[in-house]
Write a structure and sequence with these properties.
The complex is a heterodimer. By secondary structure, chain A is α+β, with helices and mostly antiparallel strands. Chain A has 10 helices and 9 strands. Chain A has one domain: Thiolase/Chalcone synthase (Peroxisomal Thiolase, Chain A, domain 1, 3-Layer(aba) Sandwich). Helix content of chain A is 36%, strand content 24%. Chain A is globular, with a radius of gyration of 18 Å. By secondary structure, chain B is an alpha/beta fold. Chain B has 12 helices and 17 strands. Classes of the chains: A alpha+beta, B alpha/beta. The interface between A and B is large, with 64 and 67 residues. Strand 4 of chain A pairs antiparallel with strand 6 of chain B. Chain B: Keywords: Transferase.
C-alpha cells in the first residue's frame, strides 16, 4: 500500500469553542474542557479595507486559518502553493444570488458573482500574499478534508515543495440549511513540508485504508466532526495537540478512509 | 514527468454527441452557437446548448442525481464506448485503483435556482423533491460518475472557475505518479444555468451575437455547456501513434478576482511550466488551443503571454466560437479537441472571427489546416487568477 510522508510545520484552527491553535491545542488535549462558544475570528489586516468589507465569513475564516498556519513557521508566503477545499464555498453569497435570481429583476452584483466562484478564497489569498504558485480548490462534499490532504501530500511528493492546505465550511442560511445541515463554521489549515526542519511539529504518513474511523471522545466534538465536513479533521487535530506517536483513521469517501501515522 | 496515455476520450457539446459529430463540425467550421430562448432567460444572447437534455432519463439506480448537469454527464459517458473502456480498465487495475477527478464551475445549481422559485409562500421552505446533495453540491458530478461506473478510488471535483477541468489532469498525474492509483477518469461537466448567464451579464462580459475570439470587433463571450471525459492510464509501454499527456503547468495571477494580469504574467508562467514538465522547447509545439474567450481584455492578455513564450509563428485558435465558453468543462473539452487534432493531423481554424485584431500578434488560424503535429498545448484561465496549460503529444515512430 502506497504511503505518503509529509511534515507539519504550522496549524491554524478556528471553530466555535476552538479559538486559534494555541487555545484549541489545550482544549483538544483535554477534551472534557471543551465549551461551545461563538466563533471568534481575528481581523485580516493584510487585505486592503475595501477588499475586506466585501468578504463573507467563509473567506475570512479561510484567510484566518491560512495566516495562522503559515506564520507559525518561517514560510515564504509569496512562494507557497496552496490547496483549498470546501463543501460549498461561501454559502451566504450563494444564497443571496439564488434569492436575486428568483426575484423579478434578477440583478446580481458583479462582486457577488465573482465571489461566487469556488476558488474565491484561494484568489483572495493569492492576491493578499502575491503568490503566483499553483493553487487548487476542491470540493468532495463530506470528504473535503481527506481529498485536500491527499492532494497536498501528492503535490509535495511530486514537486518537493511546501504546501499550505486550507479547509473550511460554514452553514447555509435557510432554506438550504434544512437540506444541508452543516451546523458550525469550521476552518483548519496545515502548513505541510517535504522535509523535517527546525519548525517541524511532527511527521505524518498517509495511506488509503478501509479500516473504520476514530470518533471524538466527547459528544459535542463528535457531533461537530459528524456535522461539518471540515471537522472530519478533528481526530487528526487531537493527535497533533499531543504529538504522541500513534496511528489514526479519518473519514474520507464512503468505503475509503485515510490512515495517518503521526511521528513525533 | 512520466507521460500518461490518453487514447480513450469523448466529448459532447453544442457541436453534437461524441467524437464523430465533434470532428465533422470542426472540419466543416460549423458553430453550435445560436440565438435562442432557454429556460426563463430574458437577455438577448447566443448560447451553445446541448440539444435534448430535457429528454434524457438517468439510469434507474441513479435517479436521485437527476439534474441537467448529471444528465449531460451520463449522455457523454455513453458516447464513443467510453463506459465500456472504463469497465475494462476497472477489471484490469481494480476498482479502488481508479480515481475520478472532474471539473465544474456551477455543478447542478440550476436545480436550486428553480427550487428557489418554488419556495413555500408561508414557511419559505424549498420543495421536498429538491435533493441538494445529489444536484447542486459541487461534488455531485464526481459522486454521480463514481457511482455510475462503480469506481472506488479517490475522487474530488476541482472548481477553479474556467480552469477547473484542465487542473484535474494535474491531480491524476500526481496521484498516478506517487502510486496511489493506476488510472483515472478525468474530465469536466458544466451545464447552462441562470447564475452564469446573469452573472457574466452583470460584468458586461456577454456578447449578444456569437462570440468572435481574437477579432478586432470582439465584444464578449457566448456561454455554452459541455462534457468531456478522458481515461488516463500509465504509459509504460506506449506504442507509435498513442496519444499522451506530456505536461501540466499551473500558476496563479495574484492580481484580481475577475480581470487577468495585464501583462499575461500568470498565463506565461503556466505555459512555461507545462513546457518544462514535458522537457520540450517552444518551437516543437505544433498547435495551441487558446483559452480565447473573446472578451477584449482576456484575448489581449493571452496574446501577450503566447507571443512571449512562443513568438508569433505557432498556429493558434480558439474553439469557443464553435462550442461557446463551456466554463468549468472548457479545459477538458479543449483537451479532447487537441487530442483530435493530434490523431487526425488536423488543426481547427477558429469560427466567428472575421478580421483578426491587428493589435494581436499570434498566428491565429481562420481556416483549417491539414498538418501532422507531434505536440499541442491547451490553455485554460479562470476567475480568481487560476491558470492551467496542458501539453498533449502523439508518439511518433
Amino acid at each position: 500500500m502506497t504511503a505518503l510522508q509529509v511534515f507539519v510545520d504550522g496549524i491554524g484552527l478556528y471553530a466555535p469553542g476552538l479559538d486559534g491553535w494555541t487555545h484549541a491545542r489545550a482544549v483538544l488535549a483535554a477534551p472534557q474542557t471543551y465549551r461551545a462558544t461563538p466563533l471568534q475570528l481575528p481581523s485580516i489586516d493584510s487585505l486592503p479595507a475595501a477588499e475586506r468589507r466585501r468578504l463573507g465569513v467563509a473567506v475570512k475564516l479561510a484567510m484566518a486559518v491560512a495566516y495562522d498556519a503559515a506564520q507559525a513557521s518561517s514560510a515564504d508566503l509569496q512562494h507557497l502553493g496552496t490547496v483549498f477545499a470546501s463543501s460549498a464555498g461561501d454559502c451566504d453569497n450563494c444564497h443571496q444570488i439564488l434569492e436575486s435570481l428568483a426575484s423579478p429583476d434578477r440583478a446580481i452584483s458583479p462582486t457577488r458573482f465573482h465571489n461566487s466562484v469556488h476558488n474565491a478564497a484561494a484568489g483572495y489569498w493569492s492576491i493578499a500574499t502575491g503568490s503566483q504558485r499553483p493553487s487548487t480548490s476542491l470540493s468532495a462534499q463530506d470528504a473535503g478534508f481527506g481529498a485536500a490532504l491527499l492532494e497536498a501530500a501528492s503535490q509535495i511528493h511530486s514537486n518537493a515543495q511546501s504546501c499550505l492546505l486550507v479547509v473550511f465550511d460554514t452553514p447555509y442560511p435557510e432554506p438550504l440549511h434544512t437540506l444541508r445541515s452543516v451546523t458550525h463554521a469550521f476552518g483548519v489549515a496545515l502548513l505541510l513540508t517535504p522535509v523535517r526542519s527546525a519548525s517541524t511539529l511532527c511527521g505524518l504518513t498517509i495511506s488509503l485504508t478501509q479500516t473504520p474511523i476514530h470518533p471524538m471522545p466527547i459528544p459535542e466534538l463528535e457531533a461537530m466532526r459528524g456535522n461539518v465536513p471540515a471537522a472530519r479533521a478533528l481526530p487528526l487535530l487531537s493527535a497533533l495537540a499531543t504529538t504522541q506517536p500513534q496511528t489514526l483513521v479519518i473519514e474520507y469517501l464512503q468505503g475509503l478512509n485515510l490512515s495517518i501515522t503521526l511521528q513525533a | 514527468m512520466q507521460p500518461l496515455l490518453i487514447n480513450t476520450f469523448t466529448t459532447t457539446t453544442a457541436l453534437g454527441r461524441g467524437l464523430t459529430d465533434t470532428l465533422s463540425a470542426l472540419r466543416a467550421q460549423r458553430s453550435g452557437l445560436q440565438a435562442r430562448s432557454w429556460e426563463t432567460v430574458d437577455l438577448p444572447t447566443c448560447l451553445g446548448e446541448v440539444d435534448g437534455l430535457d429528454a434524457i432519463n438517468l439510469r434507474a439506480d441513479m435517479q436521485a442525481f437527476d439534474c441537467r448537469n448529471n444528465r449531460l454527464a451520463q449522455l457523454a459517458l455513453e458516447q464513443d464506448g467510453f463506459m465500456q473502456s472504463v469497465q475494462t480498465a476497472a477489471e484490469h487495475y481494480g476498482r479502488q485503483r481508479i480515481g475520478v477527478f472532474l471539473g465544474s464551475s456551477t455543478s447542478g445549481i440550476l436545480s436550486s435556482e428553480q427550487a428557489y422559485r418554488q419556495r413555500d409562500p408561508v414557511s419559505g421552505a424549498l420543495p421536498a423533491s429538491h435533493s441538494y446533495r445529489h444536484t447542486h453540491n459541487m461534488f455531485s458530478v464526481a459522486d454521480f460518475v463514481r457511482h455510475y461506473a462503480d469506481l472506488q478510488g479517490p475522487a474530488c471535483v476541482v472548481s477553479t472557475a474556467c480552469s477547473s477541468s484542465a487542473k484535474v489532469f494535474g491531480i491524476a498525474q500526481r496521484m498516478i505518479g506517487c502510486g496511489l492509483i493506476d488510472a483515472a477518469v478525468v474530465g469536466g461537466v458544466d451545464s447552462l444555468c441562470l447564475t452564469t448567464v446573469y452573472g457574466f451579464n452583470s460584468l458586461q462580459l456577454i456578447s449578444n451575437r456569437p462570440c468572435m475570439p481574437f477579432d478586432a470587433q470582439r465584444d464578449g463571450i457566448s456561454i455554452g455547456e459541455g462534457a468531456a471525459f478522458i481515461l488516463l492510464e500509465r504509459a509504460d509501454q506506449a506504442q507509435t501513434d498513442d496519444l499522451l499527456l506530456s505536461g501540466v503547468g499551473e500558476s496563479s495571477d495574484a492580481h484580481h478576482m475577475s480581470s487577468p494580469h495585464p501583462e499575461g504574467r500568470g498565463a506565461r508562467l503556466a505555459m512555461q511550466a507545462a513546457l518544462d514538465m514535458a522537457g520540450l522547447q517552444p518551437q516543437t509545439i505544433g498547435y495551441i488551443n487558446l483559452h480565447g474567450t473573446a472578451t477584449p481584455s482576456n484575448d489581449a492578455v493571452e496574446d501577450l503571454g503566447v507571443t512571449a513564450v512562443f513568438g508569433t509563428n505557432t498556429p493558434c485558435s480558439s474553439t469557443k466560437g464553435h462550442t461557446g465558453h463551456t466554463l468549468g468543462a472548457a479545459g477538458s473539452v479543449e483537451a479532447v479537441i487537441c487530442a483530435l487534432a493530434l490523431r487526425h493531423d488536423f488543426l481547427p481554424g477558429g469560427v466567428g472571427t472575421r478580421t483578426p485584431d491587428p493589435r494581436l500578434h499570434c498566428n491565429y488560424l481562420l481556416t483549417n489546416q491539414e498538418q501532422a503535429i507531434t505536440h499541442a498545448l491547451s490553455n485554460s484561465f479562470g476567475f480568481g487568477g487560476s491558470n492551467c496549460s496542458l501539453l498533449f503529444s502523439r508518439k511518433r515512430a
